[in-house]
Amino acid sequence: MKILMITPYFPYPLVSGGQIRTYNLLKNLSSKHEITLASFIRDPKETQYLDKLKPFCQKIIVFKRRKAWSPVNILLSAVTPYPFLVSIYFDPFVKSQIKKELIRENYDLIHAETFYVMPNIPKTNVPVFLVEQVIEYLVYQRFVEGLTPLLLLLKPFLFLDVFKIKFWERHYWQKARRLAAMSAQDQKFIQNYNPKLTVDVVANGVDIDYFAQTKRKKLQKPTVLFIGNFKWLPNRDATKYLVEDIWPLINKELRNCQLWIVGRNPPPDIKKYQSQDIKVDGRVKDIRSAYTSSSVLLAPIRNGRGTKYKILEAMATKTPIIGTRLAIEGIDAKNNNQVYIADNPKDLAQKTVNILKNPAIGRKLAESAYSLVSHAYNWQIISAKLDRLYQEVGSPK
Predict the structure, then answer these.
(1) For the chain, which residues make up each domain, given as ranges?
(2) Are the C-beta atoms of 121 and 90 separated by less than 8 Å?
(3) Signal sequence: where (predicted)?
(4) Which of 28, 179, 185, 274 is the most buried (most CB within 10 A)?
């Protein structure tokens, strides 16, 4: 099939969850389909990575995205029905180029990764397969609800933007021929809104062979790991929650342990947590070494749906996992079997301390989790499911 895949980011380097997902799907689907990739880039320097994707793509088209806080985006979100998130990506020039591409080539399917690229798709008879990595308006809604009192004056304006996101996200759910969510929970949420919508689950995956190459290190002291892309608001919230509410309880029980916070370009409000027993590290070259140099992964996520790559990667490296119910959402892992699940600071701390004091318990959890991720969440299996959906939704000529 001839497929036009539109993404709001260029899927290389493999930094964000979205980049990892798209890269691996392209890699695994390229032998079965002719895929044209149309991606937004934030910086012209990103074109240096074109050669990384060329083996998997028939053609690559890139569009320079306006800077998020450009006057154009602010004006669009203020005077049009579009929310700020959509304004960042909506571009009449991009829409005209996609229209020309659809006229020039006989595509069987358009794969839209995230709803906020959808305004750039012109009216067409080519079926659109929309993938929702998260339900965006819920993420932003939780963020606005949690604003500090100092920002209360902004709340009415931000809630208006959340309302716009909600409206347009639901609007494009109904415009697509078919939808895919990352988890059964998101699938159910969308179908509860409109039972007529066809929603499939295409979970995230992990490159098992790549992560299994790195062997575990012998540690000087027990190390609790947190990993997150700090551009994603839920990771900032989770870091604050971990350092301020959970870590003091762990440190009270085990004075000789350390917390390692890993993520590219940590902002000042994350860097401030650096201390004698807390290391904030934005320069880990090989993320595998972070997992294999830690005793346990702690993921106290309170916001943001979908499948979390940090959980799958920890499973693939046999790193024991403690997380909230939301952190494990989308992964068929059982509490006390493959992971420990807890939803309050006291229980999260107790379960972490239990593994740090009893490494054999952690090893047992990790082995069971590795078996699960190997059989259910490798990219070959995920890509095969997406391929079947392409065949059902597309219209091969």
Answers:
(1) 2-205+379-393, 208-376
(2) no
(3) none
(4) 179
The Cα–Cα gap between 363 and 354 comes to: 12
What is d(CA 270, CA 268) in angstroms, rounded to the nearest whole number?
Answer: 5
Q: Are 359 and 212 in contact (CB under 8 A)?
A: no
Task: Provide the CATH topology of domain 208-376.
Answer: Rossmann fold (3.40.50)
Question: Is 244 buried (19+), middle (13-18) or exposed (0-12) by CB count in 10 A?
Answer: exposed
Q: Is 298 helix (H, G, I), strand (E, B) or coil?
A: strand
Note the pTM of the prediction, 2 decimals: 0.89
Q: Quote the radius of gyration of the chain (alpha carbons, Å).
A: 21
The mean predicted confidence, pLDDT, of the chain is: 94
In the CATH hierarchy, which top-level class contains the domain 2-205+379-393? alpha beta
First CA to last CA distance, the chain = 8
Kind of pairing, strands 340-341 and 321-323? parallel
Q: CB of 346 within 8 A of CB of 334?
A: no
For residue 313, what are the contacts with CB-CB under 8 A and spacing of at least 6? 206, 211, 227, 287, 288, 291
Q: Is the peptide bond before 13 cis (omega within 30 degrees of 0)?
A: yes
Q: Which residues of 313-332 are buried (b: 16+ CB within 10 A; e: fewer)?
A: bbbbbbbbbbbbebbbbbbe
- pLDDT of 233-264, one tens digit each? 889 999 999 999 999 999 999 989 999 999 98
Residue 142: closest CA among 235, 73, 230 = 235
**H helix or E strand, kind and range, residue 175:** helix 155-175
Alpha carbon distance 267, 279 (integer Å)? 14
Q: Which residue has the tokens 């389909």?
A: 33
Backbone angles phi, psi at 143, to 5 degrees: -60, -45
In the predicted model, is pLDDT for residue 295 greater than 80?
Answer: yes
Which range has the worst mean pLDDT, 111-115, 213-217, 347-351? 213-217
* Average pLDDT, integer, range 56-63: 98
| pLDDT at residue 231, as a whole number | 85
The number of residues in the chain equals 397
Work out the percent of the chain whose per-residue pLDDT is above 90.
86
- Residue 61 reports pLDDT greater than 80: yes
